[in-house]
């Protein structure tokens, strides 16, 4: 790392809680602990908020990814030895991303605008209008720091590049052009069944036996045709694995959970007046969410220090219990509790034998729970995948692109009106769960090949083509070549041309509650609810006595006018 | 706005409403004193505004404000700017009243009143409406007002249709939006706007559209209502059209006093008239009202000053009829003149459903009058038509003999030669360019609907779905089998086929053999005997018929026969007519002289099922020339025959026809010369 700028020493030096990393779960815990009147120090080695949940400028994304893809940097020279009371443990990062593949097809265009991008590291991600994260944002007042926009629609894609509108509401079913009349009737009847069940109507109650059965079996029992089943399972309930192939399905959705997902979706539609669909996206990207909670924490007295790596962990010599951390600036800070983001690895300093109590704990701490991997891709284009529509979600259910596709692939297109890219450009976030890097690549490439024109040659050879035509002396051809290298004039079937892409594979880890607590990595879900659950769990673990964001009656008296029951939505 | 449970009022609410009532009463007392003493000062007007803000339902207060505005406008010192500010004040008051109750009739009405003054900008109104229609998308007051504003600002129907469609897409449970759609589509169809030319193109699309709503949520009623409207649009025929006339367009009419002078007159168009007038018949595709001398303009070289009296030929409803007749007088001197008749240049001819006759048409014909010396004695004895087979000669055979080889085809061609005047077959009926090629689309649309709802009902139990299916099936049956039974269907098909070509029609044309006795001018006799007919149809092609033989059929009714205004001789012998009142259509046939009713079932049944058609004898002052006993016992006979000027009647073979009955008939009809073949004194 570069030179650490001289920092004024942090004062005080003792806290109730130190949180390292400003990812979403860490930020929520920091805000919750501050709200519970704990003194909190929140540190991040990066110069920005959000860690693995951040939204970064175009130029910064590749370096961030590569920093977290390499093995830990060799232990830096020890600044000072531990005192008599403490043992010192090395804190290093472990690689989280693999198989990073950045392709630049239009360098000039992008270089000029690099700062205008806010690319989500953990995309695609969105909010359901009625999900836990929105509730949390509203409850905590974090909504003051964020603005949202509705995502226009959800589509289901096929291998021919068609995007079928997902009839996800009464109005959408009515409007839909692809469903037959009987299908419309069946789908709406099913929605009504779910609504009636959720409302507790006796005559439409779904039996317990059904609720415990696989959702796909229940859908079959209701006689729903395959097309509608696929809509419900993958585009509304957002199931990840192929529900009809128990061989590859690692997560078979139960009817109960499926119904809950549908209920969430249903409650999301029409929750906010300006939001037409079920999904929301924050203006300036998902990084805003972590930042909003950090601001919330800061208001409650949490101290923030960015660009501050933590190098060592201080543990009690005798008990092996956590005592504090040593910062890159050399300062030692002490706290009762510590929360680490999942990138850290604790190692024994070389040549030192650990204190006996630690010997048992360390191996366990280093061993991460393997939850598989997630392949992510970010693509930038000059034209929308769907003319006259800017922001939308596309779901490719399992087996829709190729027979071996075992997981559903989600793609979120976000346009410049959400301030994530320069005017006239579009950012596509793609993700799919996978077992390894090769499988992940195949999944992401399958979507890109279906929807995008990937220029066959990189920028250098493109230039070569240009010079060649210039040599032949044909000015007109030259112009054409130029426009095709920069503009979105599409050679094949009017597909948008790819300008830039980043493909990477991310490790999925859950948070740990142990000797030291660590937060989970961004998961494979579309929304943040599981991460919020994990954060709440962590908070409860470290502060069992305290309430997680207690409801206060009049937190923001100045907020009366608009009613603090609402998120700010731009139309 | 909808489907919210009513909350029981709490005690504190009641206290608040008591206080509000008290305040309101005080305001009201003060307001009425201002109103009664016609005080329109600023304070007084403001008071009314305050009152309306609390209670927008106070009609008196709205009227008071109107008076105040009028009062202000009548002041000598008011200028356009101050007028505008006064009216803007009114709009503000309305807006705040609407905020209190957005369904206040008085408030919306007041707003319309202010805007009709024409001093306020309308642009603001659509924005206001958007607000109200967003708050409650079904609010019919807002939709009504929207139509008013759209008309005022000349907003195109297509723009409004787009708006309405967007509202439907937002939430299709919106009666008001569907209703507005029906209003707009009707207007566009009426205008024949581009893309809205033909119902048969539009309605299938609309069915498709409403299916989306109905199938998505069959429990929602708004879609079903729109479907009902569509069904109504499908089954009702379009605008009234003139289907045929007599005299036909381009025809030559020969009018003679007593008889045909020579064979060169066409037997089709030579008319004997002893009344000095001839009928003009208008035959529409459906019953209409409003045919009068102001809606039908006649131009002819004679009789310039006479206003024609148009009479509806309807037995049930005197106001509307499918066939209208007027009698045009002609001079006794020799005359060749043309007559032009224009129908529907005013828009008063409408169907009972209110659709206007909107295809004005004009037809003209030539009239040739041949004055003849009247020999009344000869006429009276000579007239006798014997409906016997041997008395009729096929028209074609006869013409081949007497007229040097003239085929019908040639006759049909208008060659301008005066001596071969016959109406061309094509002229019998008006070809309407506007007519849909066939009403096939209607039955097709209905069949499709039937199939569609059968499918829906196969999937779920749905009462309104069943009701709709029943409606559809009924409509479908009426449309594809408009006959009470198979026999009627057979009759109709037979008659349509027969009148469909000149060839087939001519096969039924005969001439009465004994031309000498033919004081009637020897016209064509159309013989439709022995065909097992139970109904008579296709009148529009038979308006020219003067002698008609319908004997030996299965007729129980002669409904529609009133259209044949030229009928002189009619045989209904050997049919199944059961009552005198079944003969009602005959009462409209002013030219009928010879009638054969022999061997029917008149009087078989003591209860006359069509009796209701007759008005009660007790309220009737006519018939005083008969003694009361006869009048009461033979009321129906009196009613049926008193207006007929029959010369010859055969009624033998009916139960009713006893001697006493016959003697009554003779009394009722002084003109009668022969009864059952017996020459009367």
From TrEMBL, chain A:
Intracellular or extracellular location(s): Cytoplasm
Pfam family of the protein (one): GDI
Name of the protein this chain belongs to: Rab escort protein 1
Alphabetical list of SUPFAM superfamilies matching this protein: FAD-linked reductases, C-terminal domain, FAD/NAD(P)-binding domain
Similarity comment: family membership: Belongs to the Rab GDI family.
Bias-annotated ranges (Acidic residues): 556-571
Keyword set, alphabetical order: Cytoplasm, GTPase activation
Organism, scientific name: Hibiscus sabdariffa
Claim: Cytoplasm is one of the keywords in the record: yes
Automatic annotation (TrEMBL), chain B:
Reaction catalysis annotation: geranylgeranyl diphosphate + L-cysteinyl-[protein] = S-geranylgeranyl-L-cysteinyl-[protein] + diphosphate
Keywords (A to Z) from UniProt: Prenyltransferase, Repeat, Transferase
EC number(s) from the headed UniProt entry: 2.5.1.60
Matching Gene3D superfamilies: Protein prenylyltransferase, Ribonuclease Inhibitor
Chain residue ranges for the region called Disordered: 1-20
Keyword rRNA-binding recorded: no
Annotated family: Belongs to the protein prenyltransferase subunit alpha family.
Role noted for this protein: Catalyzes the transfer of a geranyl-geranyl moiety from geranyl-geranyl pyrophosphate to cysteines occuring in specific C-terminal amino acid sequences.
Name of the protein this chain belongs to: Geranylgeranyl transferase type-2 subunit alpha
Origin species: Hibiscus sabdariffa
